[in-house]
Amino acid sequence: MTPSDQHWFDEEAGPLVRPYALTRGRTTSKQRDLAMITLVVALQRVTPQLADNLEPEGLQIVTMCQHPKSIAEVSADLGLPLSVVKILIGDLIDRQLLMFRSAVTPDINVLQAVINGIRRL
Amino acid sequence: MAYADSDPNQRPGVRATAVKLLIAGGFGVGKTTMVGTISEIPPLRTEELITELSRGVDDLSGVEQKKTTTVALDFGRITISPELVLYLFGTPGQDRFWFMWDELAEGAIGAVVLADTRRLESCFPAVDFFERRGIPFVVGVNCFDGDEQYQPDEVRVALDLDDRVPIVLADVRQRASCKELLVTLAEHAISMATAAPA
Ligand SMILES: Nc1nc2c(ncn2[C@@H]2O[C@H](COP(=O)(O)OP(=O)(O)OP(=O)(O)O)[C@@H](O)[C@H]2O)c(=O)[nH]1
Ligand SMILES: [Mg+2]
């Protein structure tokens, strides 16, 4: 964030201006397969150089995604709406800082694994 | 199984598959309680922005205005194995957030619909939603204290449920009860997937 961006984060601007400012006004992400339970993981470690080149939210996402996380978890941890997080994550995927794995519709093998797993809890 | 990975070769990073199921039902029926009882992490909260048409209070012209509000979802996680993670989402109780249910239901194993026998009708919209879309669901009859006990058959008649829909008496504050609901749902999903189309 440069100092000139600062005015976007003015308290008076209200809580909703900020998410849109974060995504530079975009309200829809590129057509990509990002769902609430799409898992994302960082492709890079957090280095001082990376920190210099990323906006704070991007850096937070790369930091928290050193281990795979769902988009819903990223949204919950950042306290930002899902649609905003999808846009931020889409940018990080474009920059090859994150990769994602789409959710699949569960087949019978998955369902059976779920049953066995729950019984073991 | 086929996966759409952004780049599967770069790093063996995402080994796991994520699946989800929904916990639905009317206001105050125990959705968040169930997520909290069975999740391995304290329930998390995510939110989505929605744009609604609303009529400004001061606006005598009656012109509709766009207003952005948020709808919150509670969710939890169960790591079944290093390869499989299950997410449980509590659906928003309010009717005006129905449009979110489509995204929620997309690719879901199915739903646990919690019913409160003191006001069974509050789960009608959820039952209707999953029935219409052919999404597997089970009904969990939450037994609140001091309640007149209902038998599953009475609930089936009251909700006009298909014979195949499992009905389970539940207390979602108990882990064993939540496990039973989830296992029943997954078994029902298997039987729906393997049954010949009606
Ligand atoms: N006796 C009994 N009480 C329950 C049960 N499940 C939940 N409760 C209680 O019911 C109240 C409401 O539960 P919540 O889990 O907040 O319900 P909810 O469906 O998430 O409510 P909303 O999100 O407001 O729609 C809490 O005080 C719970 O302790 C149950 O199985 N039996
Ligand atoms: Mg709740």
UniProtKB/TrEMBL annotation, chain A:
InterPro entries: DUF742. Pfam families: DUF742. This is DUF742 domain-containing protein. It comes from Kineosporia mesophila.
TrEMBL record, chain B:
It comes from the Bacteria. Keywords: GTP-binding, Hydrolase, Nucleotide-binding. Belongs to the GPN-loop GTPase family. PANTHER family: ATP/GTP-BINDING PROTEIN-RELATED, GLIDING MOTILITY PROTEIN MGLA. This is ATP/GTP-binding protein. It comes from Kineosporia mesophila. The lineage of its organism: Bacteria, Bacillati, Actinomycetota, Actinomycetes, Kineosporiales.
